[in-house]
């Protein structure tokens, strides 16, 4: 059970980082 939780936590963190990078790249492109 802990492995599944840690896996989903890692997936959520990766998704958050990628989305944040995507948003920052879009902001840089707009400027």
From TrEMBL:
Source organism superkingdom: Eukaryota
BP GO annotations: photosynthesis
GO cellular component, one term: chloroplast thylakoid membrane
Compartment list: Plastid thylakoid membrane; Plastid, Chloroplast thylakoid membrane
Coiled-coil region(s): none
Pfam family of the protein (one): PetL
InterPro entries hit by this protein: Cyt_b6/f_cplx_su6
Mode of membrane association: Single-pass membrane protein
Keyword list, A-Z: Chloroplast, Electron transport, Membrane, Photosynthesis, Plastid, Thylakoid, Transmembrane, Transmembrane helix, Transport
Transmembrane regions: 6-25
GO molecular function: electron transfer activity
Keyword hit for tRNA-binding: no
Annotated function: Component of the cytochrome b6-f complex, which mediates electron transfer between photosystem II (PSII) and photosystem I (PSI), cyclic electron flow around PSI, and state transitions. PetL is important for photoautotrophic growth as well as for electron transfer efficiency and stability of the cytochrome b6-f complex.
Family as reported in the entry's similarity comment: Belongs to the PetL family.
Assembly behavior: The 4 large subunits of the cytochrome b6-f complex are cytochrome b6, subunit IV (17 kDa polypeptide, PetD), cytochrome f and the Rieske protein, while the 4 small subunits are PetG, PetL, PetM and PetN. The complex functions as a dimer.
Protein name as annotated: Cytochrome b6-f complex subunit 6
UniProt lineage: Eukaryota, Viridiplantae, Streptophyta, Embryophyta, Tracheophyta
